[in-house]
Design brief:
Length: 222
C-alpha cells in the first residue's frame, strides 16, 4: 500500500485580511447634496426595553459602495441585479497617485502591456477617510475605460468618491463600464495597500430597486 501523506491546514501560512472599507459614521463625508449618515435608537435597555434597537438613515453612496447601472440610466439594472462574481476574485491594486488627474489610455497600456486585470482597484490618494471631501481626483479617460473592459476588466474600483470627475454631468466612465458589462466600486480605503495582486471580496448588500448598495470590501494577499 502506498504511503499516505497527511497535510495539516495549520501548516499553511496565514494570509491576513486587509479591510479596505470606509468606516461609516456621522463624520463620514457624503457626496455634497446627498443624504448623510445619521443614526438613533428606537428602543434602549436603559429605558426598560428588552433590547437595544438602533436605526440608520443614509444614502447608499455613503462610505464604500457599488454603483448599480440604474444610477446613471432609468431603465438599467438596479442594485439587486449586481452580480456577486464581479465583486469577488483576483484584483490588481494600481498606484495612480502620481499619474495626473486623467489616467490616459497610453498610461494604462504601459501598466498592463500583456493583459488587463479582471478587477482593477485605483489608489488615487483622494480618499474621504480623512474626513474631508476632495475637490478632484484621478479618473480613467473614456477610451482607457473602454480599452480595459474590451480586454476583460469586469470591475473598476477607486478610493476616490467616483470613477468620474466630481463635476461631470455626463458620467462617461460610468456609462462606458456599464454599457460593456463592467461594474463600479467607490470610496475604497487603500491608503496602506501596496500595488499588486490580491484576492478581493466586496459583495454588495442585496437591496432591491436602489441605485447603489453598501459593501464590506476586503483584500487578501496572494
Amino acid at each position: 500500500m502506498p504511503a499516505i501523506t497527511v497535510v495539516s491546514r495549520l501548516a499553511a501560512p496565514e494570509r491576513p485580511l486587509i479591510d479596505i472599507s470606509i468606516p461609516v459614521s456621522a463624520s463620514t463625508p457624503e457626496w455634497p447634496g446627498d443624504t448623510p449618515f445619521s443614526c438613533g435608537w428606537v428602543a434602549k435597555r436603559a429605558d426598560g426595553e428588552s433590547v437595544n434597537l438602533s436605526q440608520i438613515v443614509m444614502s447608499p453612496h455613503v462610505g464604500t459602495h457599488a454603483d448599480a447601472p440604474l444610477h446613471v440610466e432609468d431603465n438599467w439594472a438596479a442594485s439587486e441585479m449586481l452580480p456577486l462574481s464581479a465583486f469577488m476574485g483576483v484584483a490588481y491594486v494600481l498606484d495612480a497617485r502620481t499619474a495626473g488627474l486623467t489616467l490616459a489610455l497610453e498610461w494604462m497600456q504601459e501598466q498592463f502591456a500583456a493583459e488587463v486585470p479582471e478587477r482593477l482597484l485605483l489608489r488615487t490618494g483622494r480618499c474621504i477617510a480623512s474626513g474631508s471631501f476632495p475637490d478632484e481626483w484621478p479618473v480613467l479617460s473614456q477610451d482607457a475605460a473602454r480599452w480595459l473592459v474590451k480586454g476583460g476588466t469586469r470591475l473598476v474600483g477607486t478610493d476616490a468618491p467616483s470613477v468620474d470627475e466630481r463635476h461631470s454631468k455626463t458620467l462617461e466612465v460610468h456609462h462606458e463600464l456599464f454599457l460593456r458589462g463592467a461594474y463600479v466600486l467607490e470610496n475604497l480605503l487603500l491608503d496602506d495597500v501596496a500595488a499588486g495582486w490580491y484576492e478581493l471580496s466586496a459583495a454588495p448588500v442585496k437591496l432591491v430597486g436602489m441605485d447603489a448598495a453598501p459593501v464590506r470590501a476586503v483584500l487578501r494577499g496572494l
